[in-house]
Amino acid sequence: MKIALIGASGFVGAAVLSELLARGHQVTALVRDPAKALPAAVTVKVADAFDAAAVARAVEGQDAVVSAFNPGWDAPDLYDQFFNGSAAIEQGVALGGVKRLLVVGGAGSLFVAPGVQLVDTASFTDHVRANVVPGARAARDALTRIRANTELDWTFLSPPAMLAPGERSGHYRSGGEDLLMDGERPAGISVADLAVAIVDEIETPRHVKERFTVASAV
Hints:
Blueprint: E1 2-6, H1 11-22, E2 26-31, E3 43-46, H2 52-59, E4 64-67, H3 78-95, E5 100-104, E6 111-113, E7 116-117, H4 122-127, H5 133-147, E8 153-158, E9 162-164, E10 173-175, E11 181-182, E12 185-186, E13 188-190, H6 191-203, E14 210-215
Helix pairs in contact: 1-6, 2-3, 3-5
């Protein structure tokens, strides 16, 4: 498949890039800085994620787009940058004539109790850096916005609460709207196995126009 990848040099995006290439997909990376080092097999296109028209030009002719967009947790005005960038990507993919979009969102919008999302709990706001919270809230609002999108065959993937470097096992378990747990503790996954779940969903869609989550199978 021909896959456009946004955020290819980031923590999640780099793992997704490796997984896509390992499975033989043709990858086009959308970057703002063409000087960033990427594998020779990758087609690089310069496009600002905040510019829907630029995104549209860059993704035209692709089979699907994976967005691992994140302006950076230390970005000023993080809420606005995250929310507005996500909106421009969503619009640009549609303008570019691509139907399939997978968005990697945050765990904050997952439910921990009926009507209660993780981002609104004291355990979240007390245990993450204060500057991360606006990004988590923006990701939640981006999910609300994309749920209303009838143009795209979208999927929104929320990682579990714990996402860390680690080896690829190739295995994971899936969930829906609720935070996955390991006993009394929030579940986790390696970024390599998160990438496996992302590429599996692109190759064999099971969650079109849905949000889902994953965690380690062990």
